[in-house]
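Lecture notes, part 5. Sequence design as translation. It can be helpful to think of inverse folding as translation between two languages: the language of shapes and the language of residues. The source text, in structure tokens, appears below.
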């Protein structure tokens, strides 16, 4: 009887919280590389006075300066969509990034290797957006472009999301951002991935690409 009840509750939970949603807890960030200096959530968010320091913004109670670097975009003759630049030399507390590109820009307040206060040195591999060290974002999987089923070889947006990635709405269009593939709060699939980068249709690439 008790077993049956537990079983039913488990089924009910599985229906209400399909896999992925259950894993949305933010506390998984503690103890990871993103628990920078053991500051916990305050590595990135502040509960108060988010705007008190120049360059820090109201967006998501962000605790860090926004990079004012221009990163460049990946482009290629075989792409259907044109990725849009995520950097802006005029980002500040009064002009914070907005729209879906936010989910890429925020990463660059550390991963560019140039922002002060810097946590990732310019010569480190993890400084993905450092233009002199890594060609900015011009040699990385494109971000900040529209995800459209009209483009060849892509799963439907609904299927992609069911497969575990996140698509970010920008004025009614689905877009791909850094956080489409990465879960900043959880490193259980290293390196901070939403779906394992395994060599199969169930892997990260196959979540979006047919
Ligand atoms: C390394 C930086 C970093 C740390 C540390 C961090 N966050 Fe975040 N947080 C982000 C980024 C980037 C986003 C936006 C991307 C996203 O939602 O995945 C975000 C989004 C959020 C959101 C809004 C979106 C949502 O999913 O609800 C909340 C709430 C949040 N974080 C809470 C927390 C809490 C609570 C902690 C500590 C347990 C924490 N964060 C630690 C970077 C961080
Ligand atoms: C508070 C600063 C900060 C923010 C914001 C931040 N990161 Fe990080 N991240 C770090 C640090 C520090 C490390 C560990 C540095 C290292 O390995 O050199 C790291 C490590 C990583 C790694 C693993 C690197 C490796 O080589 O194992 C990935 C992937 C990553 N971050 C992605 C992201 C993404 C995507 C975002 C935005 C959604 C983001 N980070 C936002 C500071 C940050
Ligand atoms: C299409 C999915 C995807 C997108 C979009 C993406 N990443 Fe990654 N990222 C990965 C995968 C997969 C790896 C692991 C690569 C490996 O192990 O060789 C990775 C690795 C990393 C690392 C570890 C160091 C390195 O360079 O290998 C960092 C840091 C990182 N990503 C940050 C970012 C940031 C910042 C963005 C947005 C500008 C971003 N990623 C966008 C899939 C993605
Ligand atoms: C969140 C969805 C998503 C994920 C996950 C994803 N991609 Fe993509 N990828 C896209 C979109 C959207 C495009 C742009 C399609 C276009 O405009 O033609 C793209 C473009 C590409 C291109 C074409 C570049 C060109 O020059 O034409 C390649 C190659 C590619 N992705 C490889 C990968 C690999 C490898 C992985 C896994 C590490 C991956 N993608 C994961 C959405 C994704």
């Amino acid at each position: 009887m008790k077993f049956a009840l537990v079983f039913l509750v488990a089924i009910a939970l599985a229906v209400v919280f399909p896999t992925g949603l259950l894993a949305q807890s933010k506390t998984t960030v503690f103890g990871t590389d993103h628990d920078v200096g053991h500051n916990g959530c305050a590595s990135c968010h502040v509960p108060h006075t988010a705007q008190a320091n120049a360059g820090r913004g109201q967006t998501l109670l962000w605790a860090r300066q926004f990079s004012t670097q221009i990163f460049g975009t990946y482009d290629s003759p075989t792409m259907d969509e044109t990725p849009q630049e995520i950097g802006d030399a005029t980002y500040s507390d009064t002009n914070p990034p907005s729209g879906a590109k936010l989910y890429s820009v925020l990463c660059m307040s550390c991963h560019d290797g140039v922002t002060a206060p810097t946590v990732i040195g310019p010569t480190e591999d993890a400084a993905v957006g450092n233009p002199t060290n890594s060609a900015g974002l011009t040699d990385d999987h494109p971000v900040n472009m529209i995800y459209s089923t009209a483009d060849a070889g892509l799963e439907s947006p609904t299927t992609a999301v069911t497969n575990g990635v996140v698509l970010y709405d920008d004025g009614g269009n689905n877009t791909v951002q850094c956080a489409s593939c990465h879960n900043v709060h959880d490193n259980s699939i290293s390196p901070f991935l939403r779906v394992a980068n395994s060599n199969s249709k169930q892997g990260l690439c196959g979540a979006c690409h047919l």
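The translated text above is only one of many valid answers, since several sequences can fold into similar shapes. The radius of gyration is 19 Å.
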